[in-house]
């Protein structure tokens, strides 16, 4: 997810995206524990996307 795309979203859309990413992160954690994860790079991408969304949400709440 690009930062420009994230900034263009409304706070409701950002909250939904954050929830979806957290669910995906949870599933990947379980797959990693059982040794079934195929795309190991996706774990890092999700973590960074969550941080980006949280940063933009916080900035929008402050404004």
UniProtKB/TrEMBL annotation:
<keyword id="KW-0689">Ribosomal protein</keyword>
<dbReference type="InterPro" id="IPR036049">
    <property type="entry name" value="Ribosomal_uL29_sf"/>
</dbReference>
<dbReference type="Pfam" id="PF00831">
    <property type="entry name" value="Ribosomal_L29"/>
</dbReference>
<dbReference type="GO" id="GO:0005840">
    <property type="term" value="C:ribosome"/>
</dbReference>
<keyword id="KW-0687">Ribonucleoprotein</keyword>
<comment type="similarity">
    <text>Belongs to the universal ribosomal protein uL29 family.</text>
</comment>
<dbReference type="InterPro" id="IPR001854">
    <property type="entry name" value="Ribosomal_uL29"/>
</dbReference>
<protein>
    <recommendedName>
        <fullName>Large ribosomal subunit protein uL29</fullName>
    </recommendedName>
</protein>
<dbReference type="InterPro" id="IPR050063">
    <property type="entry name" value="Ribosomal_protein_uL29"/>
</dbReference>
<dbReference type="InterPro" id="IPR018254">
    <property type="entry name" value="Ribosomal_uL29_CS"/>
</dbReference>
């Amino acid at each position: 997810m690009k930062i420009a795309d994230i900034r263009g979203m409304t706070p409701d859309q950002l909250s939904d995206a954050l929830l979806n990413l957290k669910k995906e992160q949870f599933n990947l954690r379980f797959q990693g524990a059982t040794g079934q994860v195929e795309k190991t790079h996706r774990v890092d991408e999700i973590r960074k996307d969550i941080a980006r969304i949280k940063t933009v949400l916080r900035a929008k709440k402050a404004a």
